[in-house]
């Protein structure tokens, strides 16, 4: 084929592909075409001539002795030629030489041209899909924005993201949110698969903790530039979330920067999450102190970390006044579930029997003489 290098450059530019990869794809297409229209058992090689900008199909045959047993094996015989027959092409050949026989696909008529067109189209399409797969595989866990193109009967939402179509399953949508065709939405890439029949498949999520983290990074410059680090995040989508934050700069308040003036930053993130309440917590590497913070709004008396045989923290026993237990558990158990998710520990609550005063101090319950004295004090 003439001007093959020009064709390679044109395809690479149009599809946004590396010329080297396009070259290999075209070579494969030419070889597969040669096998189909000439002989599938032949060994072919595609060679590009940089001077003439053409691609040559070369059949490579190994020269063997006339009585070599491989010449009688139907499966591998096409890859070999007897020395007496080889000398008809070149009288200088010797045993084990590689005899190269050029082929012109144009000589095989319209069948070859049609087959070559299909092969090129197939291999270029596979190359494009591989590039897209690698591109979005590296984007797993990152934020993307797209436009809704369809909502099916199962309430799965199809979104056009750049040059591909992604799907947001109903299970990955926040409870209560609805989308219609034309809506623009944000989500994180949850999974990327390659299907031989349907090509690249991208699944999005709006319920992943990573989605909340990405929204915070988008809204809070201190998180985006690394001055504030998100150490952990736990969500019950659409209900409530807890985020552990750590400042890497002594002059930056991690919680204050994330919440923003009058809560403007955290409210913007909450609005994207359909009103999800977000608790921002200052992270500490001291597990007892960290658990006491993530149990807020409950006021904790004591935290004991229980370790397993390997010395790893396994569960936490949290002691608290009786009137704080309902706060620690939260509505439908949300608070303690989030605290357990964020800490990675099973949390057990133990009532101390005391109560909490208006100023937040814990008053132990009195009995016997102490209780009687308290009545007259």
UniProtKB/TrEMBL annotation:
Keyword list, A-Z: Cytoplasm, RNA-binding, Transcription, Transcription antitermination, Transcription regulation, Transcription termination
Cellular component annotations (GO), alphabetically ordered: cytosol
Family matches, as SUPFAM superfamilies: Nucleic acid-binding proteins, Prokaryotic type KH domain (KH-domain type II), Transcription factor NusA, N-terminal domain
Gene Ontology terms describing biological process: DNA-templated transcription termination; transcription antitermination
Coiled-coil blocks: none
Domain S1 motif: 141-207
GO molecular function, one term: RNA binding
Keyword Transcription appears in the UniProt entry: yes
Subcellular location: Cytoplasm
Functional description taken from the UniProt entry: Participates in both transcription termination and antitermination.
PANTHER family named in the record: TRANSCRIPTION TERMINATION FACTOR NUSA, TRANSCRIPTION TERMINATION_ANTITERMINATION PROTEIN NUSA
Similarity field: Belongs to the NusA family.
Subunit structure: Monomer. Binds directly to the core enzyme of the DNA-dependent RNA polymerase and to nascent RNA.
Name of the featured protein: Transcription termination/antitermination protein NusA
Taxonomic lineage: Bacteria, Pseudomonadati, Campylobacterota, Epsilonproteobacteria, Campylobacterales
């Amino acid at each position: 084929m003439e001007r093959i290098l020009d064709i390679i450059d044109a395809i690479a530019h149009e599809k946004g592909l590396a010329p080297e990869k396009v070259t290999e794809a075209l070579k494969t297409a030419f070889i597969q075409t040669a096998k189909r229209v000439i002989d599938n058992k032949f060994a072919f090689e595609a060679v590009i001539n940089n001077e003439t900008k053409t691609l040559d199909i070369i059949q490579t045959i190994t020269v063997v002795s006339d009585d070599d047993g491989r010449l009688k094996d139907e499966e591998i015989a096409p890859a070999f030629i007897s020395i007496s027959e080889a000398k008809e092409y070149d009288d200088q050949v010797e045993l084990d030489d590689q005899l190269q026989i050029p082929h012109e696909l144009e000589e095989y008529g319209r069948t070859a041209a049609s087959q070559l067109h299909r092969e090129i189209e197939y291999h270029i399409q596979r190359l494009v899909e591989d590039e897209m797969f690698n591109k979005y595989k590296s984007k797993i866990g990152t934020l993307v924005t797209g436009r809704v193109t369809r909502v099916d009967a199962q309430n799965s939402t199809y979104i056009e993201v750049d040059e591909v179509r992604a799907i947001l399953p109903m299970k990955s949508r926040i409870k209560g949110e609805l989308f219609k065709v034309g809506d623009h939405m944000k989500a994180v890439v949850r999974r990327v698969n390659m299907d031989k029949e349907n090509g690249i498949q991208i699944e999005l999520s709006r319920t992943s903790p990573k989605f909340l983290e990405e929204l915070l990074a988008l809204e809070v410059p201190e998180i985006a530039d690394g001055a504030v680090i998100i150490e952990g995040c736990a969500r019950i989508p659409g209900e409530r979330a807890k985020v552990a934050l750590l400042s890497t700069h002594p002059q930056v308040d991690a919680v204050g920067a994330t919440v923003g003036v009058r809560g403007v930053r955290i409210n913007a993130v909450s609005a994207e999450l359909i009103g999800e309440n977000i608790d921002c917590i200052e992270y500490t590497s001291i597990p007892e102190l960290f658990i006491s913070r993530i149990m807020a709004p409950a006021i904790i008396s004591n935290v004991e970390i229980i370790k397993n045989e390997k010395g790893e923290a396994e569960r936490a026993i949290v002691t608290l006044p009786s009137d704080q237990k309902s706060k620690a558990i939260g509505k439908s158990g949300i608070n303690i579930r989030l605290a357990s998710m964020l800490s990675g520990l099973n949390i057990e609550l133990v009532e101390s029997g005391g109560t909490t005063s208006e100023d937040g101090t814990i008053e132990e319950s009195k009995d016997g003489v102490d209780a009687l004295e308290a009545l007259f004090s």
